[in-house]
Amino acid sequence: MTFDIAILLTQDGLTNGALYALLALALVLVFAVTRVIFIPQGDFVVLGALTLASLQAGHLPPTLYLLLALGGAVGLIDAVACLRSGRAHAVGRVLLIELGYPLALWALCHWLLPLSQSLWLHALLTLAIVVPLGPSLYRLVFQPLAQSSVLVLLIAAIAVHFALVGLNLLGFGPEGVRTAAFSDAVFEIGSMFIASQNLWIVLVSAVLIVALYLFFERALYGKALLATAFNRTGARLVGISPDLAGRLSFAVAALVGTVAGILMGPITTLYYDSGFLIGLKGFVGAIVGGLASYPLAAGGALLVGLLESGSAFYASAFKEVIVFTLIIPVLLWRSLKSHDRGSEE
Amino acid sequence: MKVETLVVPAATAPARRRWGLPLALLLIAVLPLLLPQFQVTLFNYIGLSSLVCMGLVLLTGIGGLTSFGQAAFVGIAAYLSAWLGTAYGVSPWLTLPLALIVTALTAWSGSLLTLRLSGHYLPLGTLAWGISVYYLFGNLEFLGGHGGLSGIPSLELFGFELREPSSWFWLIWSIVLLSVLAIRHLLDSRPGRAIRALKGGVVMAESCGVDTRHYKTAIFILAALLAALSGWLYAHMQRFVNPTPFGIHAGIEYLFMIVVGGAGYVWGALLGAALITLLKTQLQDWLPLLFGQSGNFEGIVFGVLIIVVLLCARDGLWPALCRWWPWRRAAGITVVPPAEPLPLQPKPARGEPLLDVAAARKEFGGLVAVRDMDFRIAAGEIVGLLGPNGAGKSTMFNLISGVLDATSGEIRFRGERIDQLPSREILARGIGRTFQHVRLIPEMSVLENVAIGAHSRLQVGIGAAMLRLDREAEARLRHEAARQIERVGLAEDMHRPAGSLSLGQQRIVEIARALATDPLLLLLDEPAAGLRHLEKQALAEVLDRLRGEGMSVLIVEHDMDFVMNLVDRLVVMEFGQKLAEGLPLEIQNNPAVLEAYLGGVE
């Protein structure tokens, strides 16, 4: 391997690793707060990229229908809950929020799409469409199951993943998509070429990680989430609603996934079903951190990125085999570390 | 000792079984002649999936070990047989044992690694393994890459080549039927109860003498073997293999099948396999028409279906279906017939030293939970270990029962050091225990729960249980369990599910289970905690009876009134140390004890 290739592979590995790190952080957060192993995390990446692509092509993204459908379902359930608990006056407000938001967004897209081709506008619309799907999914699927075992929640998460992949195929078709790059500039430093998209990815990932850090350290809602992650019962006793914490953590996960999708779109061709493997790679990182430690998870994800680009070069056919076989010794190490004869789940 | 017949009303009707088997045989014989060919083929696929799902029910639904990797085992057997058949012309009847052996070895070596994974790490590990194996199949040249292998030889049976779907139907469904019988036999046996006990937690199972590691490995291999059988049949029926049906999505689909059908039930595996397979073929026809484009849209329906099942019928459709079945619930009489008693340990003479705790100490980091405790128990004595909450009683209890290892000091049982032994070894030396938080398997009957206690007193292998060669041993185990249930006065409730009993009765069932281990010393961990007044009275009666029989008991309790009339001697702990020791009356008037309990009398 020449020096140039090494640089290239490292660059590639770090770029993907930064994205996996973002996903790993979201997975750790969701698991800590809700105990859900969030397999659909990668599907949000794909939803983000495909939604952006269809906006860039000047279409109304089919994700809007999904948003409307989920909003309608949540509205219906909440409205029934309101009626049952005798709060009939709240029904109108619930329906207005759950149905009004997607409809307003629809109108907005209709109006803005022909007017502007700005990447920033499209990215913002993508976030506005995809991110609310996270909390809606939590409300519909995971909130009613909140008391179940980790395994039941895992099966539910996989079921959601299956449904999302099918819906992606239905909405976006089987073709792979690449979105327009943020900029085509390539920097040359010595003999190294660095694509500006790669810089964007690392930069935005870093900014998002810092933003999340500040959110947890400074903002009240962030602290509430941390408190729930630390001790569910305790958080409940001091007045933090576990439902709210769950929805909030799913919103953060959806946000992170969508941003990762927007960033990844220009460098990787994404298909309706690409999310599974992307999410799982974030997962390998998260598991290095024992689904608990944020820095370890981020480090693990970077490692996955580097390992992936390295094995892509040496044994490209076995890339996935190598990355996913890595998980088993890591899992072993984690569970040996947590093992105690007296401890049980 | 009473060895008369115990006759108790039960909720299950034994008469049901008599026509079940002939009916199943008749169905298998006749169905392929009545149904059109494509439906017979469909049933063949259902049968193949059922085999995998039955293994998964055993592993996941009953044993509590979730695997997403079963499709990989199907694939290993299918590919092995396909490759040997196409490349070297090896007969399928030779590749069958080979495929089974290779799969068993793979599962065994995999289990060395994955079964150490705790909690949710295991399913994630199997997920990763499933993905790896799929990509391996797709990228190995000699396995035909993603294109796969074709031209696999068909099966020949008694000189006939199996070509028609109906002949495959007979073969596949005979194998399915045999597997159902074998697994149902297994579950209703000594090793089967041990497997069902795994869900109650390692600590409970080990404290009853169950080698949990052994049984986890066994069900892992059994599930893999059933998957391999299915894979071998698939390869020779299809005569073509490619990686797709062995990928991670197939592995997840098998899990979906048992979740829908009922993960804890053998019939749930068949129901789930049938429902999902039928649904899938229907959806593959209808959804593309509905959506006006082709593609695998059934994932949407499956995903939503699973979520609805999880939300509305958590245990799957089979138990829900059973509730609708009118003639299953006919009341019958279940008899526990007399049998030869189980071997007993030689009992120590009254007054012989039994337990000797000397300077036992347990530190958790900087915290000293138990600080140099000393006390002794002689045979036939009932000793209470008393103390306010947080005094270190439970830690002391865990040191004796082997759940925790002592940091320093010695604990001896009949002169032999036990402070570094695991709980299964401690049980083997004659110390039985109960749990503060009741650990019974709620859906198993009281009799079965208590029979888990007798686990280590007889040996019955998994193979013998499957072939029903264990009936004599089984009768002895059941009779012993029934005897212990009578001893604690719960004979009326013997056949009820343990979960339907009150907390007080469940505590007593735990005592019966501990008695079934044939203990020389019984450890009771806060038996009165959370009980109502009448329940406490019933418990006290049971303990009084045991005392009359000369059983040696250590009761850990913080309820002073409860133990006062029961015990011969009391040891009081506070802040991890021994505060006082003596007769109940002395302790009752000991100023230091009063201070600790009442915060001082002002």
From TrEMBL, chain A:
Main location per the UniProt record: membrane
For membrane topology, the record states: Multi-pass membrane protein
Is the Disulfide bond keyword given for this protein? no
Q: Could you tell me the keywords of this UniProt record?
A: Amino-acid transport, Cell membrane, Membrane, Transmembrane, Transmembrane helix, Transport
Q: Which GO terms describe its molecular function?
A: transmembrane transporter activity
Q: Which GO terms describe its cellular component?
A: plasma membrane
Q: Where in the cell is it found?
A: Cell inner membrane
Q: Which GO biological process annotations does it have?
A: amino acid transport
Highest taxon, organism lineage: Bacteria
Membrane-crossing residue ranges in chain numbering: 18-37, 66-83, 95-113, 119-138, 150-172, 192-216, 248-271, 283-307, 313-333
What's this protein's family per the entry?
Belongs to the binding-protein-dependent transport system permease family. LivHM subfamily.
Q: Which PANTHER family match?
A: ABC TRANSPORTER PERMEASE PROTEIN (PTHR11795:SF450), BRANCHED-CHAIN AMINO ACID TRANSPORT SYSTEM PERMEASE PROTEIN LIVH (PTHR11795)
Q: What is this protein called?
A: Amino acid/amide ABC transporter membrane protein 1 (HAAT family)
UniProtKB/TrEMBL annotation, chain B:
| Record GO cellular component, one term | plasma membrane
Q: Which residues cross the membrane?
A: 21-39, 45-65, 72-90, 96-115, 127-148, 168-187, 217-235, 255-279, 300-321
Location (main, coarse): membrane
Does Transport appear among the keywords? yes
KW Repeat (keyword) present: no
List, alphabetically, the InterPro entries matched: AAA+_ATPase, ABC_AA/LPS_Transport, ABC_transp_permease, ABC_transporter-like_ATP-bd, BCA_ABC_TP_C, LivM-like, P-loop_NTPase
Q: Where in the cell is it found?
A: Cell inner membrane
Q: Which domain of life is it from?
A: Bacteria
Signal peptide location: none
Q: What is the membrane topology listed in the Swiss-Prot or TrEMBL record?
A: Multi-pass membrane protein
Q: Which segments constitute the ABC transporter domain? A: 355-600
In its UniProt record, a GO molecular function of this protein is: branched-chain amino acid transmembrane transporter activity
What SMART domains is this protein classified in? AAA
Write down a Pfam family by its short name.
Answer: BPD_transp_2
Q: Which key words tag this protein in UniProt?
A: ATP-binding, Cell membrane, Membrane, Nucleotide-binding, Transmembrane, Transmembrane helix, Transport
Entry protein name: Branched-chain amino acid transport system permease protein
Q: Which organism is it from?
A: Plasticicumulans acidivorans
